[in-house]
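Reopening this one. Same input as before:
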Amino acid sequence: MDSETISLDHGATIRVVQLSEDTKNYILENFGQMYKLKPDSRHKIVSYNEEIETYRWSRSYMNTPVMDASHVECNTYMFSGFDQGHNREDLPELFQPIYKEIKDLDSRYNQCVINWYRDEQDMIAMHSDCERQMVPDYNIAIVSLYPSVEESRELKVKPKGDNNNSRQITIPLYNGTVVIIDSQCNKNYVHGISRYNLKKTNRISMSFRQIL
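Same output, byte for byte:
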């Protein structure tokens, strides 16, 4: 795989990796079927004991930690609201070839959140991921899937507390782009996908985590 490493403060790093051409082509050929697996209702998160509907559709698969009272105090999108009924299902077969390639990068990946984006209005706010029940020195891998090679979005990354975005960096996300965020990056930086002022088509992201 092609790979680029971005070095940040606090010893943090981001790796940008490209999936194999075979897997990229597989995504293009199967994107329509993958998008049909989008849940009927938008994703919900729990924030300070309140359910909030987000600007995307999402579902967690495989080794998802069970939410308890301590998670209510944590701003996180790993958990689908108070309803945990579908959070530990097997990853759908259509997504297994991508998971296999991610496991080749690091065999510790055992949990996945899939996000479905409809258009340029769908987004995910700047955030850091919930660390509860993650393995020590974990990595988080974010994979972008699109219906065409021309389509893209941008991942914004900036230090926590950088309210004027003076140190923000932008990483373009094309079909098959994998962004790997290490634990120091997640502790000290936030990342997100903003709305666009240009028309954007469907997008799917797969966020892989390493859970105890």
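So the earlier flakiness isn't reproducible anymore. For the record, The mean pLDDT is 89.
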